[in-house]
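Milestone 3.1: sequence recovery, worked example.
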């Protein structure tokens, strides 16, 4: 009997040992995440129509790999970002709204604001002190937002985190200038500056060839110097090489493919330029179109690499732009405005997402979302719960239900916000969208504009006089958000007092 019992115990120990050894092999592997982030790409700067009608710009540009991704995944017709780059990038890294994280304009030089360098002297307002030095991994740097970042949390969950391309998270000589300090295991070509010196390898990706500052030089790509290669292609080759090595280890990866394109300087991608010139485009138009197609080829090359390595079915791919098209580019009609403006042309961006086995191929999603939603969404995809960051305030909302086509009524009337208390390029503003309605508050003259986006996508019919009750409602919600986030607000030169909150205008 004792012998039989001993044999039974040994068998149970053996089975337990086998289960313990095999469980890691049978556990469902965490999905890889590829976030393909484009700089300054307008809502219509693609052959994929995001409007209900195909537009002239859709017919102008050629983005076949975006078309493929849209056919395989979900096209978001109402995706939003900030109107300028650094605020969008800090929102996606932290999940915070622009008003909360306080990086409300682009960053570059430590302690120096674009308002001071380029703003008009005759402005009626004084811009506030803001987080001009960007994002920081720890306390100690003035005028920064300190927060756990998306790559930090993914890294803790076992992901290899890869940064390729534009950083623009923190000012020069601050810790946030280096993506390695913000949770990335690998950094290729990322630094403080938000634009490249040149897109051409024969210029060493430097602005020196045009008499510019070395602050714009792209680091870490010396092996391509002197070669006739486009920066977009060089970054893609480097990204694919890293994917090769990480997949070989079996680790899940987060690849932040942050292209400098289509940001200025506007330099032709010679692989595609001539086809547009032959169609009678001006030099700028052909150059801009070639940069767009070069970016699209990068998307296709990365997707091909995923397929080659057999990880395509376990990789989430999200394509998005950080703001609207620059003022030099053709207007993204029917949208009004361009980059830096509060109108739809400045903040509505192209977005496509593919999650194999989850998203329905070729579906169109018309519910709106905003850049800070990326943070909680990617964490949910990776299986990371809010318990992992209990002290971190998140304004974003996971759009996993939208990916699953299971969104409830709570998405219909959700408020989203923009905040730009600056005088660089545009007058200062705050704004809210809730449902079909959008309220814009201009700080300098304390004016309010109201638009119904369902009926008036071009924002050409200000309804603030006709719908005072809607103005009051939205002004109240916007004011609550600005107060709750301790948003930086400008000061009136005439009185030395802070500009009033929008609710104070309608309640007087």
């Amino acid at each position: 009997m004792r012998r039989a019992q001993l044999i039974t115990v040994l068998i149970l120990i053996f089975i337990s040992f086998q289960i313990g050894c095999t469980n890691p092999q049978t556990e469902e592997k965490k999905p890889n995440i590829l976030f393909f982030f484009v700089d300054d790409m307008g809502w219509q700067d693609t052959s994929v129509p995001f409007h209900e009608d195909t537009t002239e710009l859709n017919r102008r540009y050629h983005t076949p790999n975006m078309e493929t991704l849209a056919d395989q995944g979900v096209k978001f017709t109402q995706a939003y970002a900030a109107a300028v780059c650094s605020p969008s990038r800090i929102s996606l890294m932290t999940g915070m709204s622009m008003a909360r994280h306080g990086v409300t304009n682009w960053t570059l030089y430590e302690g120096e604001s674009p308002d001071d360098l380029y703003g008009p002297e005759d402005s009626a307002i004084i811009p506030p002190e803001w987080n001009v030095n960007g994002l920081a991994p720890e306390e100690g740097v003035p005028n920064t937002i300190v927060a756990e970042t998306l790559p930090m949390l993914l890294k803790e969950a076992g992901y290899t985190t890869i940064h390729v391309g534009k950083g623009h998270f923190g000012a020069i000589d601050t810790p946030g200038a280096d993506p390695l300090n913000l949770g990335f295991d690998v950094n290729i070509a990322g630094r403080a500056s938000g634009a490249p010196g040149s897109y051409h390898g024969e210029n060493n990706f430097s602005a020196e060839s045009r008499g510019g500052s070395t602050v714009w030089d792209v680091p870490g790509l010396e092996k391509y110097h002197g070669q006739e290669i486009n920066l977009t292609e060089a970054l893609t080759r480097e990204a694919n090489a890293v994917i090769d090595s990480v997949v070989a280890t079996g680790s899940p990866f987060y690849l932040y493919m942050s292209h400098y394109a289509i940001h200025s300087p506007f330099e032709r991608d010679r692989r595609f330029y001539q086809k547009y010139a032959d169609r009678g485009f001006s030099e700028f138009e052909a150059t801009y179109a070639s940069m767009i197609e070069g970016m699209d080829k990068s998307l296709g090359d990365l997707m091909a690499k995923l397929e080659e390595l057999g990880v395509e079915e376990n990789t989430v791919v999200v394509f998005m732009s950080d703001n609207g098209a620059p003022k030099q580019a053709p207007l993204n009609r029917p949208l009004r405005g361009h980059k830096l403006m509060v109108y739809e042309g400045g903040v509505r961006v192209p977005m496509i997402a593919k999650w194999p086995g989850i998203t329905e191929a070729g579906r169109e999603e018309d519910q709106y979302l905003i850049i800070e939603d990326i943070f909680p969404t990617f964490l949910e995809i990776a299986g990371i719960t809010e318990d992992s960051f209990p002290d971190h305030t998140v304004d974003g909302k996971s759009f996993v239900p939208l990916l699953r086509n299971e969104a409830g009524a709570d998405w219909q009337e959700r408020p989203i916000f923009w905040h730009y208390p600056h005088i660089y390029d545009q007058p200062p503003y705050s704004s809210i969208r809730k449902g079909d309605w959008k309220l814009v508050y201009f700080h300098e003259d304390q004016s309010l504009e109201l638009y119904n986006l369902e009926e008036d996508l071009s924002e050409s019919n200000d309804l603030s006089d006709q719908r005072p009750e809607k103005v009051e409602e939205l002004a109240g919600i916007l004011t609550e958000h600005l107060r709750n986030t301790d948003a930086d607000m400008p000061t009136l030169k005439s009185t030395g007092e802070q500009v009033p909150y929008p609710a104070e205008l309608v309640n007087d």
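The chain has two domains: 30-409, 427-506. The chain has 15 helices and 17 strands.
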